[in-house]
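Hey, resending since the last one bounced:
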Amino acid sequence: NAGGYVGTGTQCGFEVAYIRYSQNVVNMSKLNDVNLVFTSDKSKWTKCAVVEQQEDTNNSKGHAPKFYLRRHAGWTGECTNDGAPIYSTSAADNGTSYFPGYAVDQGTGERLNIVFGEDSYLDNDLGNGNDMIWNPTSTIFSPFDGSIIFGGKHIVYVLGTRYNACKDFITLARAATSVNRSLENAYDVARWVGIPTINPSLSLLSPKDGLIPTPTTLRFRVARPYAPYRAVADTSSLLNVTTGRATQPYYTFSTKDYAVTPLNASSDRNALLDKIKAVPNPYYGYSGYEQNRYDTKVRIINLPARATITIYSIDGTLIRIISKSDPDVSFLDWDVHNAVGLPVSSGMYLMHIKAEGIGETVVKWFGAMRPIDATSY
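The C-alpha coordinates again:
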Protein backbone atom coordinates (compact mmCIF):
# COMPACT_ATOMS: atom_id res chain seq x y z
CA ASN A 1 0.00 0.00 0.00
CA ALA A 2 1.60 3.25 -1.12
CA GLY A 3 -0.22 6.55 -0.83
CA GLY A 4 -3.63 5.01 -1.27
CA TYR A 5 -2.53 2.71 -4.09
CA VAL A 6 -3.00 -0.99 -3.40
CA GLY A 7 -1.37 -3.63 -5.56
CA THR A 8 -2.75 -7.15 -5.42
CA GLY A 9 -1.05 -10.37 -6.45
CA THR A 10 -2.36 -12.02 -9.57
CA GLN A 11 -3.49 -15.58 -10.19
CA CYS A 12 -2.13 -15.68 -13.72
CA GLY A 13 1.60 -15.58 -12.96
CA PHE A 14 2.16 -11.88 -13.67
CA GLU A 15 3.40 -9.46 -11.03
CA VAL A 16 4.72 -5.93 -10.70
CA ALA A 17 8.02 -5.38 -12.53
CA TYR A 18 10.75 -4.39 -10.05
CA ILE A 19 13.68 -2.23 -11.13
CA ARG A 20 17.04 -3.31 -9.70
CA TYR A 21 18.69 0.09 -9.33
CA SER A 22 15.50 1.51 -7.78
CA GLN A 23 16.05 -0.75 -4.75
CA ASN A 24 12.99 -2.84 -5.68
CA VAL A 25 10.65 0.05 -4.86
CA VAL A 26 7.73 0.49 -7.23
CA ASN A 27 5.86 3.78 -7.48
CA MET A 28 2.31 2.47 -7.45
CA SER A 29 0.99 5.64 -9.06
CA LYS A 30 2.88 4.68 -12.23
CA LEU A 31 1.27 1.25 -12.52
CA ASN A 32 -1.22 0.87 -15.33
CA ASP A 33 -4.44 -1.14 -15.16
CA VAL A 34 -3.74 -3.42 -18.11
CA ASN A 35 -5.51 -6.04 -20.18
CA LEU A 36 -3.11 -8.44 -21.91
CA VAL A 37 -4.90 -10.20 -24.75
CA PHE A 38 -3.65 -13.35 -26.51
CA THR A 39 -5.09 -13.93 -29.98
CA SER A 40 -4.41 -15.92 -33.15
CA ASP A 41 -5.49 -12.93 -35.26
CA LYS A 42 -2.18 -11.77 -36.71
CA SER A 43 -3.62 -8.38 -37.66
CA LYS A 44 -3.76 -7.60 -33.94
CA TRP A 45 -0.30 -8.87 -33.01
CA THR A 46 2.25 -6.56 -31.41
CA LYS A 47 5.62 -5.87 -33.02
CA CYS A 48 8.08 -6.09 -30.17
CA ALA A 49 11.64 -6.52 -28.99
CA VAL A 50 13.02 -9.94 -28.02
CA VAL A 51 15.65 -10.08 -25.26
CA GLU A 52 18.16 -12.73 -24.26
CA GLN A 53 17.47 -14.71 -21.06
CA GLN A 54 20.53 -17.00 -21.03
CA GLU A 55 22.75 -16.28 -18.02
CA ASP A 56 26.06 -17.31 -19.61
CA THR A 57 27.23 -15.41 -22.68
CA ASN A 58 29.33 -18.45 -23.64
CA ASN A 59 26.08 -20.37 -24.17
CA SER A 60 23.84 -17.69 -25.67
CA LYS A 61 23.60 -17.43 -29.44
CA GLY A 62 25.86 -14.66 -30.70
CA HIS A 63 27.17 -14.34 -27.10
CA ALA A 64 24.40 -11.86 -26.30
CA PRO A 65 24.37 -10.82 -22.62
CA LYS A 66 21.25 -11.44 -20.57
CA PHE A 67 18.54 -8.75 -20.95
CA TYR A 68 20.14 -7.41 -24.14
CA LEU A 69 18.44 -7.79 -27.51
CA ARG A 70 18.61 -11.26 -29.05
CA ARG A 71 21.32 -11.52 -31.69
CA HIS A 72 19.08 -13.10 -34.25
CA ALA A 73 17.32 -12.00 -37.43
CA GLY A 74 13.89 -10.58 -36.74
CA TRP A 75 10.79 -12.69 -37.39
CA THR A 76 8.37 -11.09 -39.85
CA GLY A 77 5.34 -12.82 -38.35
CA GLU A 78 4.88 -14.80 -41.56
CA CYS A 79 5.63 -18.40 -42.54
CA THR A 80 6.29 -20.30 -45.73
CA ASN A 81 3.70 -22.66 -47.18
CA ASP A 82 5.27 -25.55 -45.29
CA GLY A 83 5.11 -23.60 -41.99
CA ALA A 84 8.73 -22.46 -41.65
CA PRO A 85 9.16 -18.99 -40.08
CA ILE A 86 10.23 -16.23 -42.46
CA TYR A 87 12.97 -14.01 -41.02
CA SER A 88 13.83 -10.48 -42.10
CA THR A 89 16.97 -9.90 -44.14
CA SER A 90 17.30 -6.34 -42.80
CA ALA A 91 19.79 -5.74 -40.00
CA ALA A 92 17.44 -3.05 -38.66
CA ASP A 93 14.98 -5.81 -37.70
CA ASN A 94 17.48 -7.87 -35.71
CA GLY A 95 16.16 -8.63 -32.23
CA THR A 96 12.52 -7.96 -33.14
CA SER A 97 9.50 -10.18 -33.55
CA TYR A 98 5.72 -10.29 -33.08
CA PHE A 99 3.92 -11.08 -29.84
CA PRO A 100 0.67 -13.03 -30.42
CA GLY A 101 -1.59 -10.45 -28.84
CA TYR A 102 -1.64 -6.93 -27.47
CA ALA A 103 -1.80 -4.92 -24.22
CA VAL A 104 -4.20 -2.05 -23.52
CA ASP A 105 -4.00 0.54 -20.73
CA GLN A 106 -7.49 0.48 -19.19
CA GLY A 107 -7.10 3.99 -17.81
CA THR A 108 -6.29 5.74 -21.08
CA GLY A 109 -7.42 3.20 -23.67
CA GLU A 110 -4.00 3.30 -25.30
CA ARG A 111 -2.16 0.30 -26.66
CA LEU A 112 1.12 -0.47 -24.89
CA ASN A 113 4.50 -1.84 -25.91
CA ILE A 114 5.46 -5.44 -25.13
CA VAL A 115 8.85 -7.15 -24.84
CA PHE A 116 9.38 -10.89 -24.51
CA GLY A 117 12.43 -13.00 -23.78
CA GLU A 118 14.00 -16.27 -24.91
CA ASP A 119 16.83 -18.41 -23.61
CA SER A 120 18.66 -19.06 -26.87
CA TYR A 121 20.64 -21.92 -25.30
CA LEU A 122 17.39 -23.88 -24.99
CA ASP A 123 17.07 -24.37 -28.73
CA ASN A 124 15.35 -27.74 -28.47
CA ASP A 125 11.84 -29.01 -27.81
CA LEU A 126 12.28 -28.37 -24.08
CA GLY A 127 12.41 -24.62 -24.53
CA ASN A 128 11.94 -23.42 -28.13
CA GLY A 129 14.33 -20.65 -27.13
CA ASN A 130 16.10 -19.80 -30.36
CA ASP A 131 13.42 -19.06 -32.95
CA MET A 132 12.28 -15.49 -32.06
CA ILE A 133 8.73 -16.80 -31.63
CA TRP A 134 6.67 -16.57 -28.43
CA ASN A 135 6.05 -20.31 -28.08
CA PRO A 136 6.79 -21.41 -24.49
CA THR A 137 6.67 -25.09 -23.57
CA SER A 138 5.28 -26.81 -20.48
CA THR A 139 8.71 -27.87 -19.18
CA ILE A 140 9.66 -26.21 -15.87
CA PHE A 141 12.84 -28.15 -15.05
CA SER A 142 15.11 -30.22 -17.27
CA PRO A 143 14.37 -33.96 -16.97
CA PHE A 144 18.10 -34.61 -17.45
CA ASP A 145 19.88 -32.43 -14.89
CA GLY A 146 17.09 -30.52 -13.09
CA SER A 147 18.21 -27.16 -14.48
CA ILE A 148 15.67 -24.38 -14.89
CA ILE A 149 13.81 -24.40 -18.20
CA PHE A 150 10.69 -22.34 -17.41
CA GLY A 151 9.22 -23.16 -20.80
CA GLY A 152 12.16 -21.57 -22.61
CA LYS A 153 12.02 -18.41 -20.45
CA HIS A 154 9.57 -16.65 -22.76
CA ILE A 155 9.21 -13.90 -20.18
CA VAL A 156 6.67 -11.21 -21.08
CA TYR A 157 7.25 -7.57 -20.11
CA VAL A 158 4.35 -5.12 -20.46
CA LEU A 159 5.78 -1.62 -20.72
CA GLY A 160 4.08 1.58 -19.59
CA THR A 161 4.66 3.39 -22.89
CA ARG A 162 2.31 4.06 -25.78
CA TYR A 163 2.70 1.49 -28.55
CA ASN A 164 5.30 2.36 -31.18
CA ALA A 165 6.69 -1.12 -31.99
CA CYS A 166 9.15 -0.77 -29.06
CA LYS A 167 11.08 1.92 -30.90
CA ASP A 168 12.42 3.63 -27.76
CA PHE A 169 13.21 0.37 -25.95
CA ILE A 170 15.15 -0.94 -28.95
CA THR A 171 17.09 2.31 -29.32
CA LEU A 172 18.15 2.24 -25.66
CA ALA A 173 18.95 -1.49 -25.70
CA ARG A 174 21.16 -1.18 -28.78
CA ALA A 175 23.04 1.73 -27.21
CA ALA A 176 23.63 -0.21 -23.99
CA THR A 177 27.13 -1.06 -22.81
CA SER A 178 28.54 -2.43 -19.58
CA VAL A 179 29.46 1.09 -18.44
CA ASN A 180 26.27 3.06 -19.12
CA ARG A 181 22.73 2.88 -17.81
CA SER A 182 21.05 2.78 -21.20
CA LEU A 183 19.78 -0.77 -20.64
CA GLU A 184 18.45 0.07 -17.18
CA ASN A 185 16.65 3.06 -18.66
CA ALA A 186 15.08 0.78 -21.25
CA TYR A 187 13.65 -1.52 -18.56
CA ASP A 188 12.66 1.37 -16.30
CA VAL A 189 9.27 1.56 -18.05
CA ALA A 190 8.43 -2.12 -17.47
CA ARG A 191 5.24 -2.30 -15.42
CA TRP A 192 4.09 -5.94 -15.40
CA VAL A 193 6.12 -9.10 -15.97
CA GLY A 194 5.40 -12.81 -16.02
CA ILE A 195 6.93 -16.16 -17.01
CA PRO A 196 4.14 -18.02 -18.80
CA THR A 197 4.34 -21.73 -19.52
CA ILE A 198 1.90 -23.95 -21.37
CA ASN A 199 -0.57 -26.26 -19.66
CA PRO A 200 0.88 -29.78 -20.16
CA SER A 201 -2.50 -31.01 -21.41
CA LEU A 202 -2.64 -28.37 -24.15
CA SER A 203 -0.43 -27.22 -26.99
CA LEU A 204 0.03 -24.08 -29.05
CA LEU A 205 -0.91 -23.90 -32.69
CA SER A 206 1.79 -23.62 -35.32
CA PRO A 207 3.13 -20.11 -36.04
CA LYS A 208 1.43 -20.29 -39.43
CA ASP A 209 -1.95 -20.91 -37.74
CA GLY A 210 -1.55 -18.12 -35.19
CA LEU A 211 -0.08 -19.90 -32.13
CA ILE A 212 -2.99 -19.17 -29.74
CA PRO A 213 -5.62 -21.97 -29.64
CA THR A 214 -8.19 -19.98 -27.64
CA PRO A 215 -8.49 -16.18 -27.22
CA THR A 216 -7.43 -15.32 -23.67
CA THR A 217 -7.35 -12.09 -21.66
CA LEU A 218 -5.28 -11.49 -18.53
CA ARG A 219 -6.33 -8.51 -16.41
CA PHE A 220 -3.89 -6.65 -14.13
CA ARG A 221 -5.43 -4.14 -11.74
CA VAL A 222 -4.33 -1.64 -9.09
CA ALA A 223 -6.87 -0.13 -6.69
CA ARG A 224 -6.20 3.59 -6.77
CA PRO A 225 -7.73 6.74 -5.25
CA TYR A 226 -9.68 9.24 -7.31
CA ALA A 227 -7.06 11.60 -8.70
CA PRO A 228 -5.85 13.16 -11.96
CA TYR A 229 -4.25 10.47 -14.07
CA ARG A 230 -0.76 10.27 -15.52
CA ALA A 231 -0.98 10.20 -19.29
CA VAL A 232 1.17 7.74 -21.23
CA ALA A 233 3.94 9.55 -23.08
CA ASP A 234 5.53 8.82 -26.43
CA THR A 235 8.94 8.78 -24.79
CA SER A 236 10.45 6.14 -22.55
CA SER A 237 8.88 7.53 -19.37
CA LEU A 238 5.48 8.53 -18.09
CA LEU A 239 4.37 12.10 -18.56
CA ASN A 240 3.65 13.58 -15.12
CA VAL A 241 0.73 15.91 -15.76
CA THR A 242 -0.38 17.62 -12.54
CA THR A 243 -2.57 20.56 -13.48
CA GLY A 244 -5.18 21.66 -15.97
CA ARG A 245 -7.76 19.94 -18.10
CA ALA A 246 -5.09 17.70 -19.60
CA THR A 247 -5.10 15.62 -16.40
CA GLN A 248 -8.68 14.47 -16.93
CA PRO A 249 -9.58 11.44 -19.06
CA TYR A 250 -11.00 11.99 -22.53
CA TYR A 251 -13.64 9.81 -24.16
CA THR A 252 -14.98 9.70 -27.69
CA PHE A 253 -18.55 8.81 -28.50
CA SER A 254 -21.02 9.33 -31.32
CA THR A 255 -24.78 9.83 -31.50
CA LYS A 256 -24.85 9.13 -35.23
CA ASP A 257 -27.23 6.18 -34.97
CA TYR A 258 -29.42 7.86 -32.36
CA ALA A 259 -29.94 11.28 -33.90
CA VAL A 260 -33.51 12.33 -34.68
CA THR A 261 -34.28 12.11 -38.39
CA PRO A 262 -37.29 13.66 -40.14
CA LEU A 263 -40.11 11.39 -41.26
CA ASN A 264 -40.08 10.94 -45.02
CA ALA A 265 -41.40 8.66 -47.73
CA SER A 266 -38.56 6.18 -47.22
CA SER A 267 -39.10 5.83 -43.46
CA ASP A 268 -40.06 2.37 -42.20
CA ARG A 269 -43.40 3.14 -40.60
CA ASN A 270 -43.98 -0.41 -39.40
CA ALA A 271 -40.69 -0.28 -37.50
CA LEU A 272 -41.76 3.02 -35.90
CA LEU A 273 -45.12 1.56 -34.88
CA ASP A 274 -43.38 -1.48 -33.36
CA LYS A 275 -41.49 0.85 -31.00
CA ILE A 276 -44.71 2.18 -29.45
CA LYS A 277 -45.12 0.39 -26.11
CA ALA A 278 -47.06 0.62 -22.85
CA VAL A 279 -44.77 0.37 -19.83
CA PRO A 280 -44.73 -1.33 -17.47
CA ASN A 281 -46.44 -4.26 -19.15
CA PRO A 282 -47.60 -6.23 -17.29
CA TYR A 283 -48.44 -3.78 -14.52
CA TYR A 284 -48.32 -5.35 -11.05
CA GLY A 285 -49.86 -2.65 -8.89
CA TYR A 286 -46.90 -0.28 -9.17
CA SER A 287 -44.77 1.59 -11.72
CA GLY A 288 -41.68 3.74 -11.47
CA TYR A 289 -43.57 6.73 -12.85
CA GLU A 290 -45.85 7.03 -9.81
CA GLN A 291 -45.16 9.84 -7.34
CA ASN A 292 -46.83 8.52 -4.17
CA ARG A 293 -48.90 5.65 -2.80
CA TYR A 294 -52.14 7.07 -4.19
CA ASP A 295 -50.82 7.52 -7.70
CA THR A 296 -51.30 4.99 -10.51
CA LYS A 297 -49.65 5.55 -13.85
CA VAL A 298 -48.80 3.71 -17.07
CA ARG A 299 -46.77 5.37 -19.81
CA ILE A 300 -47.19 4.92 -23.57
CA ILE A 301 -43.81 5.67 -25.14
CA ASN A 302 -42.26 6.49 -28.54
CA LEU A 303 -45.23 8.51 -29.77
CA PRO A 304 -45.12 11.20 -32.48
CA ALA A 305 -46.11 14.83 -31.83
CA ARG A 306 -49.81 14.06 -32.22
CA ALA A 307 -51.44 10.79 -31.21
CA THR A 308 -54.79 9.46 -29.98
CA ILE A 309 -55.05 6.40 -27.75
CA THR A 310 -58.37 4.59 -27.36
CA ILE A 311 -58.47 2.02 -24.56
CA TYR A 312 -60.89 -0.93 -24.60
CA SER A 313 -61.57 -3.81 -22.25
CA ILE A 314 -61.15 -7.29 -23.68
CA ASP A 315 -64.91 -7.49 -24.41
CA GLY A 316 -64.79 -4.32 -26.51
CA THR A 317 -66.12 -1.84 -23.93
CA LEU A 318 -64.70 1.65 -24.38
CA ILE A 319 -62.73 2.58 -21.26
CA ARG A 320 -60.95 5.84 -22.06
CA ILE A 321 -59.72 8.09 -24.87
CA ILE A 322 -56.56 10.10 -24.28
CA SER A 323 -54.51 12.16 -26.71
CA LYS A 324 -51.35 14.24 -27.01
CA SER A 325 -50.34 17.22 -29.15
CA ASP A 326 -47.11 18.32 -27.48
CA PRO A 327 -44.18 17.98 -29.94
CA ASP A 328 -41.62 18.26 -27.13
CA VAL A 329 -42.48 14.95 -25.45
CA SER A 330 -42.68 11.48 -26.96
CA PHE A 331 -44.90 9.80 -24.37
CA LEU A 332 -48.34 9.98 -22.81
CA ASP A 333 -49.31 8.95 -19.27
CA TRP A 334 -52.54 7.11 -18.43
CA ASP A 335 -53.69 7.22 -14.80
CA VAL A 336 -55.28 3.75 -15.13
CA HIS A 337 -58.75 5.25 -14.62
CA ASN A 338 -61.79 5.14 -16.89
CA ALA A 339 -63.59 8.07 -18.47
CA VAL A 340 -65.46 8.96 -15.25
CA GLY A 341 -62.34 8.82 -13.04
CA LEU A 342 -62.79 5.39 -11.46
CA PRO A 343 -59.88 2.92 -11.24
CA VAL A 344 -60.10 0.14 -13.80
CA SER A 345 -60.25 -3.46 -12.67
CA SER A 346 -57.46 -5.98 -13.11
CA GLY A 347 -57.33 -7.66 -16.48
CA MET A 348 -56.35 -7.42 -20.13
CA TYR A 349 -56.89 -4.21 -22.12
CA LEU A 350 -56.42 -3.22 -25.74
CA MET A 351 -54.92 0.14 -26.67
CA HIS A 352 -55.68 1.33 -30.19
CA ILE A 353 -53.05 3.93 -31.02
CA LYS A 354 -53.44 6.33 -33.92
CA ALA A 355 -50.03 7.91 -34.52
CA GLU A 356 -50.47 10.88 -36.83
CA GLY A 357 -48.25 10.70 -39.88
CA ILE A 358 -47.18 7.12 -39.12
CA GLY A 359 -50.18 4.83 -38.89
CA GLU A 360 -52.20 2.79 -36.42
CA THR A 361 -51.32 -0.08 -34.10
CA VAL A 362 -52.82 -2.06 -31.22
CA VAL A 363 -50.97 -2.70 -27.96
CA LYS A 364 -52.13 -5.39 -25.54
CA TRP A 365 -51.72 -4.43 -21.89
CA PHE A 366 -52.33 -6.37 -18.67
CA GLY A 367 -52.79 -4.76 -15.28
CA ALA A 368 -53.05 -6.31 -11.81
CA MET A 369 -54.42 -3.49 -9.70
CA ARG A 370 -53.48 -3.04 -6.05
CA PRO A 371 -56.21 -2.80 -3.39
CA ILE A 372 -57.73 0.64 -2.90
CA ASP A 373 -56.02 2.59 -0.11
CA ALA A 374 -58.97 3.34 2.21
CA THR A 375 -56.92 5.92 4.14
CA SER A 376 -57.21 8.28 1.16
CA TYR A 377 -60.96 8.71 1.72
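Confidence is low (pLDDT under 50) at residues 1-11, 233-244.

Sorry for the duplicate.
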